[in-house]
Specification:
Length: 474
């Protein structure tokens, strides 16, 4: 379905004016990023890349994505508490993937010692594309669920205002008024605040565990602000700071700089390059502590691609969510084809099918952050090299989703204004808080639409490929 502003796009002059307004509106609203050249100071900032126009999203699929989010929250939480399932599922992966193996070792070590943590906070983002089937009817298909450091909830809370302004400049007042309000910063902060409150130590702080290179700091600041507004102190520390100054008392309360930490919110720690030996020690210290980790290490493991693939096996969802047939059905409806490459006959068949028709699939390692997957000819060559080796079990295979492209303009600092054929990925933020066995909060907390030019098979906003967008429901 074409956007109601399609006709306006013919007029270059109008577009240029709209783009100039859009960029200034983004700066005014705080859709900001530090620059590549100066990633650790705010002396120089720029706007985060975004689309000139909202993108059309079928409202039925948008609603479907919201409707399944609480189910996904329950599912992730259930996986994180199921030691046997996590252990069995990752058994083949940890033999060949050192990073997953290291996370898994910490997971086992903290379970063996016994958890000091009794309040649990999950912040995730379930990402989807709209698969255009043979019949031309788009279907909601999950790409992945991010259970650690799911980002852009802050900045995207401010893009609706920008796109609303652009539509008005284009004379589309009625369309501007139909853009949905969206405020993940607030939703995520409510979860963090709830966990902080249940931790039960009013003088304790929330610690954002942040990267060495902090280009995306404004996205995090949006959430920080919401916490300060609720009179909760926020500190920002790196793994290195925790290694040097973090400690546990004899009840495993976590202290840093003389302050007790109630909640550790990771915005780091999901890729191998985040860790050296000291950082792994810091991670272990945090995991052993009583502080609420968002996520705890079990929940991080629940977000691996290998777990995602196992969930699609018959009976697994039913086992993890007993007595919740409707939730299971809603979740399963969003699954694309997912295939294990474990050694054996089943895996051999999958490998052969992928080599024969590589454009039907995506090959995924256990990595996050974009730019790691293999497609097409690269996929075929990689699989041919490892087809008979256990190395292949570091990957999973997934059906490739093929969305219908649409024209948009990707606004990036220092880039020319030009039309691109684009596809979008919709993410729904989920937040939940559990105390012991009791779910205290379980909700969807807003959405994120990211759009990229079709020539890029892979990659998110931080990877420099996708840009922030706003859905326009039809
Ligand atoms: P990451 O953890 O690196 O974000 P994803 O599974 O989200 O891994 O894949 C990265 C990107 O690759 C996605 O944002 C999407 O653009 C593309 N992608 C991933 N899986 C598929 C798929 N099954 N079909 C089409 N594109 C995909
Ligand atoms: Mg992703």
């Amino acid at each position: 379905q074409p956007a109601p502003w399609a006709a306006v796009l013919q007029d270059e002059e109008v577009l240029r004016e709209a783009a100039a307004v859009a960029v200034d509106a983004a700066l005014l609203e705080g859709v900001l990023m530090r620059t590549e050249g100066f990633p650790n100071t705010s002396d120089v900032v720029n706007y985060a890349p975004f689309t000139l126009l909202p993108s059309v999203v079928p409202s039925a699929l948008f609603e479907q994505a919201y409707a399944v989010q609480q189910d996904f929250n329950l599912l992730v939480d259930a996986i994180s508490q199921n030691k046997e399932f996590v252990e069995q599922t990752l058994a083949s992966t940890v033999k060949v993937d050192d990073f997953t193996a290291q996370l898994f070792r910490i997971h086992m070590q903290v379970l063996e010692e016994g958890l000091a943590q009794s309040v649990f906070l999950g912040i995730n983002r379930s990402d989807y594309m709209f698969d255009c089937g043979m019949d031309g009817i788009p279907a909601l298909k999950q790409i992945e669920i991010n259970t650690i450091a799911a980002s852009f909830g802050g900045l995207t809370s401010r893009t609706v205002a920008v796109h609303g302004r652009v539509l008005k400049v284009l004379g589309k007042f009625e369309e501007a008024s139909r853009l949905l309000p969206n405020n993940p910063s607030k939703g995520l902060a409510l979860g963090i605040a709830k966990a902080w409150e249940l931790y039960g130590s009013p003088s304790a702080v929330v610690m954002f565990l942040v990267e060495e290179v902090q280009r995306n700091i404004f996205d995090q600041r949006c959430i920080e602000n919401e916490l300060w507004n609720r009179n909760i102190r926020v500190i920002r520390k790196r793994f290195r700071d925790v290694f040097e100054k973090g400690s546990l008392d004899d009840t495993r309360r976590l202290y840093i700089d003389g302050r007790e930490v109630a909640v550790v919110y990771y915005r780091e720690g999901y890729v191998p390059t985040n860790y050296d030996q000291q950082n792994w020690e810091a991670r272990l210290l945090l995991e052993r502590s009583r502080a609420v980790k968002c996520p705890d290490i079990a929940t991080q493991l629940a977000g691996t691609k290998k777990v995602q693939q196992e969930l699609s096996r018959p009976g697994i969802l039913e086992m993890l969510l007993p007595g919740r047939a409707e939730a299971v059905a809603r979740i399963r409806a969003t699954f694309a084809g997912l295939y294990s490459l474990d050694m054996g006959e089943e895996g051999d068949k999958v490998v052969a099918a992928a080599i024969a028709d590589p454009d039907r699939f995506v090959l995924k390692p256990q990595r996050e952050g974009g730019g790691n997957n293999l497609y097409g000819e690269e996929l075929r060559q990689a699989l041919e090299k490892i087809r008979d080796s256990p190395e292949r079990t570091a990957y999973i295979l997934m059906d490739k989703i093929k969305p219908q492209p649409a024209i948009n303009y990707l606004l990036r600092a220092h880039s020319p204004l030009q039309a691109s054929e684009c596809i979008s990925e919709l993410g729904i933020f989920g937040v939940y808080v559990r105390r012991g066995k009791e779910m205290v909060m379980n909700r969807a907390a807003g959405h994120l639409l990211r759009t990229k030019a079709i020539e890029h098979a892979d990659g998110g906003v931080a990877a420099g490929v996708a840009v922030l967008d706003t859905p326009y429901l039809v």
